[in-house]
Amino acid sequence: MSKPSEPERERIDPEYDHRREDSVDEGRLEALLDEYAIGRDDHENAPAFVIRPDDIQEVVALLRDEAGFDHLSCLTPQQYEDRYESLIHMTKYDRRSHEVTLIVPVPIDDPVCESAEPVFRTADWHEREAYDLVGIEYEDHPDLRRILLPESWQGHPLALDYDQDKPQLVHYAEHANPLQADRHDDESDTMLLNIGPHHPATHGVLHLETVLDGESVADVEPDIGYLHRCEEQMCQQGTYRHQIIPYSNRWDYTANLPNEWAVARAIEDIADIEVPEYAQVLRTMATEFGRMLGHFLAVSTFALDVYGDFTAIFQYGMRDREVVQDILEDLTGQRMMFYFFRLGGVCWDLPEPREEFIEKCRDFLDELPAKVDEYHDLLTGNEIFQIRTIDTGVLEPEVAKDYGCTGPVARGSGIDYDIRRDDPYGYYENLEWNVVVEGGCDNHARVLVRLREVEESAKIIEQCLDLLEEWPEDERTVQSNVPRTLKPDAGTETYRAVESAKGELGIYIRADGSNSPARFKIRSPCFHNLSALPEMAEGEYVADLIASLGSLDIVLGSVDR
Fold first, then answer.
1. What is the reported pLDDT for 328?
2. Rounded Cα gap, residues 168 and 172, in angstroms
3. What sequence ranges are listed for the domain NADH:ubiquinone oxidoreductase 30kDa subunit (predicted)?
4. Which of 250, 268, 356, 452 is deepest in the core (most CB within 10 A)?
């Protein structure tokens, strides 16, 4: 019997969701790329095709237009002894389990390949980072210059020949005075305004180079890199077993348990490590508490951004966040840098007495609906807040996809994309919950998504508590038997992602047979969401620019890594 088509499946089974199709049709991909593919490889997560460096634009456009791969989720640059490689990880917003990787080898003496930016705008920042850290150059890129390091930096830190002990004398360029006569246009009122890199209103050490035409924003360019800490290089120097997961808590430190899961999922993939079902429930519950941490902070600081409300909304958010931090402190032993995940599971079971901890969690969940109502009364129902957020910071769905936006930023633009459902991991597929989507495409919609997601997290946690409470005592395995030293086979590669509070947090790992990765790449949701800020801010007032930035809920530890 032939496999029914998607419309037939939907008619036969109303619960059928085409997003859950397990894998891409490799035969169709091979036929589609037959003219371009010069080799094949198999990564753990996706089929991989080797293509020539001057065919990138044709191939990614073909995959987008003919096969529906509309999400360029990550670009990973790396260097071997005999070549450079630029890896393009592509998937689909409406079918996350369909993935493909393009491998673009370039010569060691001339590391130049074609840019994907004319096809996907998100490739702009991807390729600038690749040039900055590894040294690959991209032809047709509109603005190929460093993005994390100063322009005068010598060398590329992730290149094999980089001398880490060589001292750097960094000369910062002197900015021209925008008020000088040769910088003034008599026909306009354009001027340059520097916003940041001070912390207030920029959510970290972020510098916004803003061009104003009168009171309106004509252009804005986020200038990042002030908090760059070489996290990828540090992870490459750490061992799989114990030393990499703790680093992840420092990326998005406001909601960091999903970071731990992203690292664990990728390493468990290449090392073929199974996670006990009971540990999956613990992971799922803990991570949803972590998601709440991020959303409470995002909503409360956003009120501060929009109308300076420190005494009410901000402190309401801190009040509720403290309760969650108390719960996670009981569970993990830490209030911020949790390090609860271990490869193959978690570090320990619920604290004793179990009944007391479960009751504490349930008390919080019982009070949560009334607290969410308070947020709506004080925030989303506030007339000033509505005026400041409705129809400001508009990000249309196709623009959001072009920039690789994910998480509440994408779902606030009507994009029904959530990795927890679309590429299931943990215990999510066994629980009842909904993906929150709002169609407003503005600052207001993104706040609504986060508040509704708090309620969905509560549903997930409630079900996890029920399971943990009823789980037979002799079957509560919190961690599988993992070797003390892990040495995945050389050449094993994978890209795995989880749904963090900010969006798709992905990890690419290439093993070389040792107990540390040869390449470790972090795909930050904040990095991609921030790159779309110019699209949201053009034509708005400066105050709306601040609101749009706040609605992205970025953390510079995640942007810069």
1. 94
2. 12
3. 50-167
4. 268
